[in-house]
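Example record for the data management plan.
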Amino acid sequence: MSLSHWAIVALVAVVLFGRGKISGVMGDLADGIKSFKRGMREEGSEPGPSA
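Corresponding structural encoding:
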C-alpha cells in the first residue's frame, strides 16, 4: 500500500462522488460523532437508580 496507491483511490473516490458530496458526508459524520459524545456525557451525569 504505497502513497501512489492511496492517491489513485482518492482520485477515483472524488471522480465517483464529487468533492461536494464527500465533504457533506464527512460533515454529517462529524455531527454524528459530536451528537454521540454529547449523549454519552449526558447519560453519565444522570444519577442511576440506587439498589
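Summary line stored alongside the record: Residues 3-40 form one domain.
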